[in-house]
Amino acid sequence: MELLAQSIGARVKSERKKHDWTLDQLSEASGVSRRMLINVEQGTANPSVSILLRLADALGIGLPALVEPPELRTAMITRKGEGAALWTGENGGSGILVAGNATPDALELWDWTLAPGERHESEAHSEGTRELLHLHKGSLTVEVNDEVFELRAGDAMSFHSDTAHAYANTHKTPAIFNLCVFEPSAGTTHKMEDNNAK
């Protein structure tokens, strides 16, 4: 995780400088505190998925581009065990970004495991974002707004994730699922106008 944190920090700093922004300007654009930004850029923070999404959106690059090295390739392979572990649950669960593309329309593919008793809450993503979920093992509760959906192994669902949502495992066995996130025009929601950034 330390190497990933350093890689993310370097990318955030590089993108911030491309915008010719100060730490304060990026803080204002992203809603992330200046102290946290300093820690992220120094590679000493373990930022939450929510913070990473805010930074990616403010910088106009989408989450996959923030956690992957900026290399131009026609294809990219993520070998088993090489995905970016961006969430770790208190009981051993994990959220791993295994593939994605850059902007303007960000597409992310995640491998998730929620251990018994774990819950992951997500803030609303940018307008128009949708998620596709396929549960491979166990049972899973998905909350979208005030609606609650109970899924069993083999079930799949799609939903608008530009509203608060959560995943929870209230059962005694792990819930294992793939999640695909489509964010159209990633990075445009909090983008500062150039004349405000100078």
CATH architecture of the largest domain: Sandwich
Mean pLDDT: 86
CATH superfamily of the largest domain: Jelly Rolls
Query: Strand pairing plus helix content: what structural class?
Result: alpha+beta
The total number of structural domains is 2
The backbone outline, from C-alpha atoms, is globular
Main CATH class of the largest domain: Mainly Beta
Assembly form of the protein: single chain
How many beta-strand runs?
10
Contiguous helical run count: 6
Roughly how many Å is the radius of gyration? 17 Å
Biggest sheet character: 6 strands, antiparallel
Q: Return the CATH topology of the largest domain.
A: Jelly Rolls
Numbering strands along the chain, what is their spatial order in the largest sheet?
Answer: 1-2-3-10-5-8
The end-to-end span amounts to 34 Å
Proportion of beta-strand residues? 25-35%
Low-confidence stretches: 189-198
The helix content is 25-40%
Give the SSE string: HHHHHEEEEEEEEEEH
